[in-house]
Amino acid sequence: MNFFAVVALLVGAFMIFNTFSITVAQRTRQNGLLRALGATRRQVLGSVLIEALAVGVLASVLGLLAGFGIATGLKALLDALGFGIPAGGLVFATRTVVVALAAGILVTLVAAVAPARRAGKVPPIAAMSSEVVGSAGYGSVSRVVVGGVALAAGLAATLTGIFADVGNRWAVIGAGSAGVFLGVFVLGRTISLPLSRVISAPLPRLRGLPGQLARENAMRNPKRTAAAGTALMLGVGIVVIINVFVSSTKATVDDEIERAFTADLVVDSGAGLTGGVDPSLAARLDALPEVGAVTGLRVTPAELDGDPVLLGAVDPATAFDLLDLQPQDGSPEALGAPDAIAVLDDTAREEGLQIGSTVPVVFRDTGPQELTVAMIYGEELEANGPVGTYVIGTATYAANVADDVDWKVVVAKAPDVTLAEARAAVDDVVAGYPGAEVMDRAEFAESIYAPLDPLMSLVYALLGLAIVIALLGIGNTLALSVVERIREIGLLRAVGMTRGQLRGVIRWESVVIAVQGTALGLVLGMFLGWALTRALADEGLDVFDVPWTTLAVVVVLAGLAGLLAAALPSRRAARLDILRAMHAE
């Protein structure tokens, strides 16, 4: 939860920064007049920070009250649904109040520092004579250099952490990822202009004059466009990282089952990791004419090298007909000894193990035992549960574990029997074992990654909140830009632009900003998602998969959200009185 709170604060900080940047630019002449009348740079800077402090205090108090109200509503909803959590009621701790207020006020002040310094640095004469216009430049040389160095260093660190043998690789990858994000953020203005030009290129042909004006407005101030889209980039980037990770996890499971799991059906005991089904089930299934082969899989808690693990157990006589574990050395028959253990080949190389080596294992029932390496295999089946980096035979299991139950029963149909016929026969037998469930290969794969779905729903809900804040930032930016361009809008209306055309200008400008932020988020998220999956390759996540359909939906939704964010600003612009707008300061 703390992570999502930080994301929301960062997104809010971008929104605050952009708001104060625009308002400071709009007040250039007023600030210049104050400087001409004797106000010092420090006084002008202080006035902006005092305003930020007032905004931060008010917004933090309102946010605190809103949060408590939402929590109360969620509590009532959960009670109505029968969950009754939290059981002891809501806790409104003093620490929560202090942290929330401090975080909100501090983030507001920090985000307003740069605009405040900019307000104090403008010379009085230049400020009094200047027009408030945006810059279409690519950013200062120093900004380009700093951003380029940060991006290059971040990429180098990330790739080094992935491909090189370095200590504390996660710290290296994390620092590199932060550098990549920082580089993209600093280079935002430099990237914004060409990206806006590409994204908005079809608008003049598709929407005529409103499209052309929307395109020029999006490009006239790359700094503002980049700042408005950065918050959305952050939210979308995190969504893409998580989507790529989940999609790669599912693809890895599917690939693992397809590659090494040769059975047709799986009977899940329904007891999780704390129990199982009676071994008589496997015997009864093996006796069916529709079944060609059956093996039971078992699992037990143990300790290896002082670390708690779930140690899998297989029947050497039958398991290798249904699980393609690719024996490299030793034999499945040798795994039948009561003190035997099999080891994954990668682990054997890392630990210096070979056939005949001993592995200390602590069982829950018999305590410390010295097991002998009887087989080295090349294919782990972590998706299947018990066959990971170590596995024992059923004889070793029986000698050290009191529970006589199968965690899962794996079934292959007979050669001349259809899957439907085999499943019907298996279903009839399994019906006599309460809690047990029959699954085919696809259902088995789905059951493995199904626990990710509720977690992902929560993640998407929390990240959705951050994206909503980012879209509010785009709407806020457009609303302020409408105020800034009020005379321009009045002139356009005076020369014949309709209200509908004017609304279209604002809406399509918003779409360009939203799609730009989304595009950067997609690229950033895909790269960091790839880095995450590569970093986890040694843990079994060896398939990189991009959910293209989901990403396409994200882009479409971003465009629609851009239209929604522009609803109020475009309406306000269209309703401006023409004469008053033309005479506005």
Explain what you see.
- The protein has 585 residues and is α+β, with helices and mostly antiparallel strands.
- The protein folds into 3 domains: 1-132, no CATH class; 179-261 and 449-585, no CATH class; 270-435, Beta Barrel (Cathepsin D, subunit A, domain 1), CATH 2.40.70.
- The protein contains 22 helices and 10 strands.
- It has helices at 2-26, 28-36, 41-80, 94-121, 124-129, 141-163, 169-186, 188-199, 203-220, 222-260, 280-286, 319-322, 345-351, 394-400, 419-430, 441-449, 452-484, 486-494, 499-535, 548-565, 567-574, 578-582, and strands at residues 265-268, 291-304, 307-314, 327-330, 340-344, 358-363, 367-377, 390-393, 408-413, 437-440.
- The protein has a 6-stranded mixed barrel with strand order 2-3-8-5-7-6, surrounded by 4 helices.
- It starts with a helix and ends with a helix.
- The model has no long low-confidence stretch (mean pLDDT 83).
Q: Which characteristics define this entry?
A:
single chain; Cathepsin D, subunit A, domain 1; 22 helices
- Assign the structural class, choosing from mainly alpha, mainly beta, alpha/beta, alpha+beta, or little secondary structure: alpha+beta
The assembly state of the depicted protein chains is single chain
User: Widest sheet: strand order?
Assistant: 2-3-8-5-7-6
Main sheet specs: 6 strands, mixed, barrel
Tell how many strands the DSSP assignment holds: 10
- Counted up, domains total 3
Whole-number average pLDDT? 83
Gap between N and C termini: 46 Å
Principal-axis shape: elongated
Proportion of residues in β-strands: 5-15%
State the helix count: 22
Low-confidence stretches: none
Radius of gyration: 32 Å
Measured as a percent range, the helix fraction is 55-70%
